[in-house]
Design a protein that fits this description.
This protein has 355 residues and is an alpha/beta fold. It folds into two domains: 149 residues, Isopropylmalate Dehydrogenase (3-Layer(aba) Sandwich); 186 residues, Isopropylmalate Dehydrogenase (3-Layer(aba) Sandwich), CATH 3.40.718.10. Helices cover 47% and strands 15% of the residues. It contains 13 helices and eleven strands. It has an eleven-stranded mixed beta sheet with strand order 3-2-1-4-11-10-5-6-9-7-8, sandwiched between helices. The longest helix is centred in the last third of the chain and has 26 residues.
Length: 355
């Protein structure tokens, strides 16, 4: 990992603030060698630093006087919280002092800060949250997972174009297979949004394989799965909850008898590998694709390990110049502008409607 990478951390973000963000950030800095800018209330940050060894970590503190609340409206954060740790962290990226930003704060506010502070890549109508998820075979990209609850068909096509670049440049998949999340595999299944988006995706240059049902998300047969933010967020939270519930149920069952406990001891390494594979903390946060900069949003209830992984992910994005490839790939693909509010998207929608 290059030693000149600098990442801004919203130290006050999330449900636990510095208590989680500081140890998670320090661990990431040790593992990757990146330099940190810890943004937030300096006394609170230093108080937490006193609890952890940090002499071997390169960091600086940027003091702020405000915090973006988890329940605040994004517009209120933008207008009234200009000295919030979140806004300042994003501005550090815009100013070139940091290569990327990681926050566990209000995801809506983070998206707003990204759009109004960093700005969108030319031709992108709406940035989207992309989640890298575990499957039976390999990690896949699910997009959008919460940034855009109400979408138009052309939005989903742009999500697919952005996620396809991410899958190629970061996950190393040569020709990513792209599908759309729907209620049936057959063409024509789904609501009006998915059916219209299906038509647009089918006419694009993407390696589009059609509809993907919810039960097939974790098979690993599809590299990129596209959906609107409402459906994607439900799918993401359901998978997180199911993973936790399965782990808890498994622990309960294994403690019911002496024989099951003995079996647990034998199979303990396998159980640990299973727990690690389904733990959302192992996959960091969700990158906001479509911005002029690297920004990763973590779960509000993230633990220190999740913050560490998110910072590692951000460092990899910087090292692999993922955003540069995204900009280059999108600009090289004329469909980015064609599949928008006007142009080919409109024509294909009319064609699909039989007009």
């Amino acid at each position: 990992m290059p030693k000149d990478i600098c990442l801004a951390v919203d130290a006050m973000g999330g449900d636990f603030g510095p208590e989680i963000n500081i140890p998670g950030s320090l661990a990431a800095a040790r593992e990757t060698g990146v330099r940190l800018i810890l943004v937030g209330d300096e006394p609170s940050i230093r108080k937490e630093l006193e609890r952890h060894a940090h002499a071997d970590v390169r960091f600086e503190i940027v003091h702020t006087t405000q915090v973006a609340g988890m329940a605040e409206k994004p517009s209120d954060v933008l207008r009234r919280k200009k000295d919030s740790s979140m806004q300042v962290a994003f501005r550090l990226v815009r100013e070139g002092r940091a290569h990327g930003v990681v926050t566990a704060g209000n995801s809506g506010a983070a998206l707003a800060c990204g759009m109004f502070i960093l700005g969108r890549i030319g031709g992108v109508d709406r940035p989207a949250l992309a989640s890298i998820m575990p499957t039976l075979k390999k990690p896949i990209v699910l997009i959008d997972v919460g940034a855009n609850a109400d979408c138009k068909p052309y939005n989903l096509v742009q999500f697919g174009l952005m996620a396809e670049v991410l899958a190629r440049c970061v996950l190393g998949i040569a020709n990513p297979k792209v599908g759309i999340l729907s209620i049936g595999e057959e063409e024509g299944k789904g609501n009006s949004l998915t059916k219209d988006a299906f038509t647009l995706l089918k006419g694009s240059s993407l390696n589009f394989i059609g509809n993907v049902e919810g039960r097939d998300v974790f098979t690993g047969e599809t590299d990129v799965i596209v959906c609107d933010g409402f459906v994607g967020n439900v799918a993401l939270k359901l998978s997180e909850g199911l993973g936790s519930a399965l782990a808890s149920m498994l622990k309960t069952e294994l403690k019911k008898s002496i024989w099951s406990r003995l079996g647990t001891l034998i199979a303990l390494p396998a159980f640990k590998r299973f727990a690690k594979k389904i733990d959302y903390a192992e996959y960091g946060g969700a990158p906001i694709l479509g911005l002029n900069g690297i920004a990763i949003v973590c779960h509000g209830k993230s633990n220190a390990r999740a913050i560490t992984t998110a910072l590692q992910q951000a460092a990899i994005f910087v090292e692999k110049k993922a955003n540069d490839y995204l900009v280059e790939g999108l600009h090289a693909n004329t469909e980015l502008s064609l599949f928008s509010r006007t142009g080919k998207a409109s024509a294909l929608r009319q064609e699909a409607a039989g007009l």
